[in-house]
Amino acid sequence: MKILLTNDDGIYSPGILSLKQTLKSIGSVTVVAPDVQKSGVGHSITFSHPLRVRDVHLDSDFVGYGIDGSPADCVKIGVREIMKEKPGLLVAGINIGANVGINVLYSGTVAAAIEGALLGIPSIAVSLEISELPPDVHGAAALARDMISSIIRREIPKGTLININIPFVPKNEIKGIKITKQYSGDFDERYDRRTDPRGSAYYWLAGTGWPEEDVIGTDMHALKGGYISMTPLKYDLTDNGFFKELETWDMQY
Q: Of 13, 80, 122, 216, which has the maximum CB count within 10 A?
């Protein structure tokens, strides 16, 4: 099986390097990832300048292709130009930091998996919850490989991706896997207000905390409880519940 591997933390991230090694037992892995950190760019694509592709090596070993664009750019150019043929699987990750709730809209890692799903490729996003301790990316990569091996024996509907979030606990303390819905509430965000040398104020997003609300059955609830969450996502923002009501409106122009 040909696998396209990408992320939003950049091609030098330990998450993508560890996942590449473990996925070699499943198939042939091609890494196409941003050449610098691109967290939080969402599903942006590049129109304003040409995309440049360069070979990336670490300790003389070829890692993959670094792109000066977004994760979605990496998927597009990886499928259409670098790999020449559609891969059988797209994996985005391992992202350092959970992608649950509203964060799936901001995440470049999830956006890369969405792009893969839109191109008709079975796609999986993998993220690891962060803590004050260094992340165990090697353990998370081994877990992800085992889950991906199980997933690809089934069929993911066209246009759907699977978003996996791994809690920051030792493997033997993970309570299991829960199939979850996306948490739809807001998160507790805070900004630091600072002053530059010229006396002007500027603001720095300092952190995002878990909300007090904890909805059972959601990705956030599973992760907080020590479970791996698996959430099927589909890029269709239509509010189907409100659609028929909107059809009854007598709109004028």
A: 122
Rg (CA), the chain: 19
Least confident of 111-120, 183-192, 244-253: 183-192
- Strands 177-179 and 160-166, sheet pairing: unpaired
| 0.70 surpassed by pTM | yes
Pair type for strands 28-34 and 89-96: unpaired
Range of the domain at 134: 2-247
The answer to whether 36 touches 123, Cβ cutoff 8 Å, is no
Residue 252 domain flag: no
Q: Are 229 and 222 in contact (CB under 8 A)?
A: yes
Beta strand residue intervals within the chain, DSSP E = 2-6, 28-34, 53-58, 61-67, 89-96, 123-128, 160-166, 177-179, 188-195, 201-209, 228-234
**Is residue 108 a part of any domain in this protein?**
yes
The answer to whether 104 and 233 have CB atoms below 8 angstroms apart is: yes
Residue 253, in any domain of the structure: no
CA 243, chain centre distance (Å): 29
Please report, for the domain that includes residue 22, its CATH number: 3.40.1210.10
pLDDT in tens, 156-207: 999 999 999 999 998 899 999 999 999 988 777 889 999 999 999 999 987 6
Assigned domain for 90 exists: yes
Domains held by the chain: number: 1
Rounded to an integer, what distance in angstroms lies between the CA atom of residue 223 and that of residue 142?
A: 18
